[in-house]
Structure formats: structure tokens, C-alpha cells
Design brief:
This protein is an alpha/beta fold. It is built from 9 helices and 5 strands; from the N terminus they run βαβααβααβααβαα.
């Protein structure tokens, strides 16, 4: 049985990483095999690309080059981690994926949509998200949250963009959700951590009632709890 590929999208400071870690622990406790990865990243090569892009080193070459770099990192992550895990029946949770390229390089970067979709099709064949959570909140709120964890490093390549671009990205994600309602679920990330967690759990439970991913049999001691 093929595993489930679940992606998490949204603007800066939306809390995706926190919720991915929490959900992974919950799913593991329920008996599922879970893999967490991120984009760009996940593999040695993709993590190197992450450093180049988020440091701003590629910014001078334009959004087209950034899109190509993201696609290269995605290809490595898909082939080395995501596809093998899915083939083993693992639930893969990914912090950003193709929708971020559609938004960051397409909507706010001005990269040609067909160019992006061509790369997307080439890279994600056999590893398209089954479910995508879009964490939505006003960009000024997300940036304020993100600033709390910048520490000495400061904002990355995309966090430092102006509010207008961040708002355009927010609308871009919401448009994707509207265009693909069977895949995308919007989570109000402006709520408290507890409320966001409950909303995510409710959505996952409803989804798993239909897809029924493969879980390990529970032990007798565990079943009594």
C-alpha cells in the first residue's frame, strides 16, 4: 500500500514546522511509520541548495534561477527520500513543496506559470501531494512571530521582503486552495497553538477515515491504554 504524502504550506511564521513535529509524534503513537522532510532540504544536496537560496546568494540571478534551484533540490528530495518512503507505506510530512514554488517564484517572483508547471511535472511525477494544509494568517502577524526566532541570523532571503509581497503570497496560497479544494485544507493559523492543533487533528482524522493508511498492529499492552 502506497503511503500518504502530506504537505504543509503557508507564509512566514505560520507555525508549520511546530505542527509537523507535533503531528508526527501523534501519528507515530498511533502506530504509523512517519517521515518528516522539508523543502528545500531533506538530503545532503538539497540542504546545500537551501543554504544558497535562503542566504540570498542566488537572488542576484533572479527568480527564474531560484525556481530552477528549488526544482533541483525537490528532485533530489523526491528521488532519495519521498518516493522510497511512500513505496514502503510511510506517511511523509513535508514542510513546503510545489505550492511554495507556485507562490514564491510564480505569484511574487513573476516566473512564467507554464515554466514552473513544466518543472513541477518533471520533478514530482509519482510524488504528488495527497493532502495539503495551508496555514493562513495575516503576514504582519506571521512576520512578528518569525522575528522572535531570527536571533543573530536575522531574516532569510524571503522573510526580508516587504509586506506587499508577503500579502501577495498569502493570496496566492488561498487561490491554490480555492482551485484545488479536494487536495487543500486551509487552517486558520492566527488562532492559539492549541486551537490550530485541534483543527489539524480534526482534519487528519476526517481524511484518514477515507484513505485508511497502513498502521502497525497495536500491542496488547498498548491497546489497553
Amino acid at each position: 500500500m502506497r503511503g500518504q504524502f502530506i504537505t504543509f504550506e503557508g507564509g512566514e511564521g505560520a507555525g508549520k514546522s511546530t505542527q509537523i513535529k507535533r503531528l508526527a509524534e501523534r501519528l507515530k503513537a498511533d502506530g504509523y511509520d512517519v517521515l518528516i522532510t522539508r523543502e528545500p532540504g531533506g538530503t545532503t544536496g538539497a540542504e546545500a541548495v537551501r543554504h544558497v537560496v535562503l542566504s540570498g546568494a542566488a537572488q542576484q540571478f533572479g527568480a527564474d534561477m531560484e525556481a530552477v534551484l528549488f526544482a533541483a533540490a525537490r528532485a533530489d528530495n523526491v528521488e532519495e527520500l519521498i518516493k522510497p518512503a511512500l513505496e514502503e507505506g510511510t506517511i511523509v510530512l513535508c514542510d513546503r513543496f510545489m505550492d511554495s514554488s507556485r507562490v514564491y517564484q510564480g505569484v511574487s517572483g513573476g516566473v512564467d506559470k507554464e515554466f514552473l508547471l513544466t518543472m513541477e511535472r518533471a520533478v514530482t511525477e509519482g510524488a504528488r501531494p495527497d493532502l495539503t494544509f495551508i496555514f493562513d494568517l495575516p503576514p504582519e502577524v506571521g512576520l512578528a512571530r518569525a522575528a522572535d526566532v531570527w536571533a543573530d541570523d536575522g531574516p532569510d532571503r524571503f522573510e526580508q521582503d516587504d509586506l506587499k509581497l508577503h500579502e501577495a503570497r498569502r493570496q496566492g496560497f488561498l487561490e491554490i486552495a480555492e482551485e484545488e479544494p479536494d487536495r487543500c485544507i486551509v487552517i486558520d493559523a492566527s488562532q492559539s497553538l492549541a486551537k490550530v492543533s485541534r483543527a489539524l487533528d480534526t482534519a487528519i482524522d476526517a481524511y484518514f477515515k477515507n484513505v485508511k493508511p497502513k498502521a502497525k498492529p497495536k500491542s496488547k499492552s498498548r491497546a489497553k491504554r
